[in-house]
Task: structure prediction
Amino acid sequence: MTIIHNRPLDDIAETAPTLGGNAFTRAFSGGSLWRLIGMLVLILLLGFLTIYPLAMLLYGSLHSTPPGMAGEFNLNGYRSIMTTQNLIVLANTVGISLAKTIPSLTIAVFLAWIVARTDTPFRGALEVLITLPFFIPPILTAMAWGMLANPQVGVINMVWRWATGATDPLVNIYSYGGVIWHMCQYSIPFLFLFMVDAFRAMDPSLEESSRMCGASRWTTFRKITLLLMLPVLTSSFMLSFIKGIETFESALFFGLPAGIKVITTDIYESINHRATPDYQYATSLSFAIMGLMFLLVIWQWWMLRGKSFQTVTGKGFRPSVMELGPWRWVTFAICLMFFFITVVLPIGQLMLGSFFRFFGFYTYDMLTLEHYKAVFANSEFWRAVRNTMMLGLLGATATMALGAIVAYISVRTRWRGRSLIDGMAWLPWMMPGMVLGVGFLWAFAMLPGPIPIYGTVWALLLAYIALGTPVSVRVMTGAYHQLSYDLEECSRVHGASWFQTMWRIMVALAWPAFAVGWVLTFFGIMRELSASILLYSVGSETLAVVLMKLWANGNAEQVSVIGLMMMLLVIVFRWVQLSFIKARISKL
Amino acid sequence: MAGPFGKTALPEVKKEIAAVGRRNFERRVPGSKSRARRSIVSSREERHVTTNTSMTSVIQKTSAIQTWSRRFFMAAVGSLAISAAAGMPAFAQDAEWQKVIDAGKKEGSLVLYTALVGQPSTKQIAEAFTKQYGISVEVLEARASEIRERVRVEQAAGRFAADVMFTSEGQTMLYDKEDKSVDPLPVTPNSQKIGDKFKLKVPMASVMTIPYGIMINTGLVKPADEPKSWKDIADPKWQGKILSDDPRAIGAGYLWFFSTYDKIGEDYVKKVASQKLVFTRDQRESQRRTARGEYSIYMPVIMTDFSDLKGLPVKFIIPEEGVPYVLYGNVMLKKAPHPNAAKLYLDFMQGPVVQKIYAGLGYGPVLGGMTEGLPADVKAISEAKLYGTTDTTRQNEMLAKSKDIFK
Result:
């Protein structure tokens, strides 16, 4: 009904007029030679950012020693990962990741629908507030949940015991459930952010027709809304599932005491906790996982191939909301409860703790502002803020620009090599961060001497762009899938140049997605530690490095102060972004 | 180096340290032994030839020896002449050290990599060093495995960025044996004054020891029940009440496992393993968790953290047997861009200024008499008897053993 088969895309490519303009315009519009060169440049750039570090890692996995040391090529790495033990760990990891991805996706879809498509009260504020935990360093929320839900003296369990007189704890965060819960804390807001604009940009006429034909609200939601969201949903599922395989803080913090092992803790151990770091083992294991993950990407391609999901068409379209009547208070209550459990509980704990000398000891004489003073007086912190802001602004913008171009080419053109760049853009997501960080170190340090990347901020910037590209491409792919070709053609028919069309239609209409992607990338950069710590140089510390140092020295309270400040920044960013989107949408 | 393997190795240790620039000195200038021991090597090639036996190219070696012996002969004759003329035996060394100081000041800066992350003392020491020599210190911090890989890759790629690396004895062995990224130690004025057991076989200039002990929650453990020794940990009454650093991975828990396994025995370790230990890998957060009452005991705890936790219901206990420890020190990295500043820094870290800073924080100094006048609690920790440390050469074997015992 709604999944219409595309009209041959070749039409579009062929009807695209070869207008003049400068060389760059031609590169993307007309002459196949220029297009070829344009593509080549793009492939080289992505190759340098993704294939090159991975190639270094591949070398590491096939060579008995890491790059730069004498050794021999062998398959010992791959042989050593083929153990029953690892198979069990892999099954365990996949299980945990599925167990967190499916509920996270369900909840995120539901929340996105409430916020974007219903008239639930205060949904503007809710949209900002329910995503907050995502922007806090995982170690802080882990600590907060450790304090809330440990079986011995966790706040939740104390309240439970006091209220019911029970002796057994209600919850134990140091368990499978705890690991999954802590992962959900990050994947729900991430998925929500990722999807909410796709929901917003949907033409409601399809849903209205469905309702007119007598389908119930639920059927409409299931058969129309969800199906139209298929590209976004599958992308979300994969991003989240793959991340779940690679997440490691939750498993290390809550899983280790309970004896829960996942692939990444195994990799972490092989690098950090063996007599000598076993890079061959770590990289081999990562590539094995990567191979499995790529099957998923192929599955997604196969599923989405030849279908159209365009909902933003040339027809007059007003993103309208569904009127829920009294039910809107139910949806409001659900959001509020979610907000309370996932945001107020852990972040309230952090906020409270930041005003006391020690977390968890809330007595009057422990009240202090010393942590705030210490942070504000820390010159290294301010230097790191400046560095991170600069890297974040530049990095997020560059990443989104690259992501938009890649997504445009892979979704809206039939250019040769478009699947290649789409696939290349996936790669960094499939390598666990700590291994990829080593890949960047090897790649940038081993560049020929005159290329001054290693030891400069450029190394950090390039690594951040590479790390952010998968998300930026996914976000923009989702957005471009929704834009109808009519709009582009219409613009061209009316005499707009290729660039004008690009700007007025492809950029302006995809702007909300671009903005969300930008925020995700920006805060991704702010939190990135694995690559940063291997690439930063004296004077170019990033915030994550400073946080790690403070944490390592036991200044958990100061880390919270910084975490809270980061959160404040998110609120400002999101508020600006949402008001901007609102202003734009009302103009449409 | 202490521990069961340290004693037999001691004579060799001394030899290694004094070896720099001495072997041939003694041969050519008999009678100048005592001065030679303190002499400072100022030329890079000389150090390579005298101590780096792993150098493979014979041709390179012989030609280096030729230039070296020529230079050396001149220097030896010169110093002999000067000391004979002035009649002051220490003069030659002082003059030579003065040359290092001048050259170091000319270099003007120093790049320090440190694996001891987040310690405020690092900055304090750097400032004191700058104050004394006018040489600025740039510090790069990362965890041991990360910083090691950075140094290794940088050197492999011909990017010699760092001068000095502050790291542990075990890591130094890897730097030296596997990566070959460190230079032999220079002999500096202070390097001979440190305690004999801190003069190592590996090219690391020892600075301080980090002591590990037991921490208890005073709200949960009555004074009469307090564990006093490592053996008390095996008491069944602590079953399920001990939070422990993971002994199956390199770190504090493994250090405890290694030293008690060697000194008390396998039965003891197995008994502790049956206590249903809960494992963690986050030292500082685990201290807090114990303070908040999740567990009665946390072990092994970094004893020097006691001052950060003042005001919390916890007590740090020095076990009767002594404290397992990690020895930290500086290594000189190959082709250091500021070699003389690096020498000054190595020397400075073993001098009284830095030694007092570390002793004041509770670390074990390598120089005698540094704990005078400290508050009693700090002094006790700083002077705590050293129990044992790990041996890198037995790491694979012991890790496997630990994994076997602590399933």
In short: Confidence is low (pLDDT under 50) at residues 1-74, 76-89 of chain B. Chain B has 16 helices and twelve strands. Residues 73 and 183 of chain B are 23 Å apart (CA to CA). The longest helix of chain B spans residues 58-86.
